Amino acid sequence: MALRMAERFRGFLPVVVDVETGGFDAEHDALLEIAAIPLSMDSDGFLRSQATVSTHVEPFPGANLDPRSLEITGIDPTNPLRGALGERQALDHIFQVVREAVHASGCQRAILVGHNAAFDLGFLNMAIRRTGHKRSPFHPFSCFDTVSFGGLAYGQTVLSKAVLAAGLPFDSREAHSAVYDAERTAELFCSVVNRWRQLELFERAHSGLDTV
Questions:
Q1: Given the residues 133, 139, 176, 206, the one annotated as active site
Q2: Active site residue 176
């Protein structure tokens, strides 16, 4: 099973990531939440989500916090009950789980899966740069974007609409939480890849080819 996952995406393990931030500028705006979900593959070649790892993040010194972004996410960065970690600790917390999943899958590196993935990868890479982190398990610029996947498979590019078009539930009241959005994004990505796998198995079955 591990070898098949390693072969499916050229040695990369898809890991779904969502971040919540204090704005849209990765260099100047705060990273406030991050969630990551490694994916696994079953014996039939279908993807599924593993456990979610997440943390709240303390704004880095001098970070910008746009009130409009905070209104959308509902995050209060000053709330002591958030249990937020500093950026370096947050990255260590996430990266440890991701590295373990990469090793268990037989893959060489993680590849970020996100909805508007360049946004999430940009904030992740900027946090890596700020903290001088040397052991990121993620590819620094390659990613899978479920905006494209959703548009291709379901004709929808907005996360909520693509998830609903895939026949999956979406609660808009829970949106804009890193954990919730990451879990819905993981379901969407798995839905599209598994749909392709179903088609592959169907074609093999009707062509007389071995389905293993």
A1: 176
A2: yes
Q: Which residues pair with 40 in a beta bridge?
A: 48
Q: What are phi and psi of 152, to 5 degrees?
A: -65, -50
pLDDT in tens, 178-209: 999 999 999 999 999 999 999 888 888 888 65
Report how far apart the first and last C-alpha atoms of the chain are (Å, whole number). Answer: 12
Question: What is the phi/psi pair of residue 14, to 5°?
Answer: -65, 130
3-state SS, the chain, equals CHHHHHHHCCCEEEEEEEEEECCCCCCCECEEEEEEEEEEECCCCCEEECCCEEEEECCCCCCECCHHHHHHHCCCCCCHHHCCECHHHHHHHHHHHHHHHHHHHCCCEEEEEECCHHHHHHHHHHHHHHHCCCCCCEEEEEEEEHHHHHHHHHCCCCHHHHHHHCCCCCCCCCCCCHHHHHHHHHHHHHHHHHHHHHHHHHHHHHHCCCCC
Alpha carbon distance 26, 126 (integer Å): 6
Strand partners, 105: none
Only one residue has tokens 């591990």, namely: 2
pTM as predicted: 0.94
Express each pLDDT in 130-148 by its tens digit.
Answer: 999 999 999 999 999 999 9
* Phi, psi dihedral angles at 88 (to 5 degrees): -65, -45
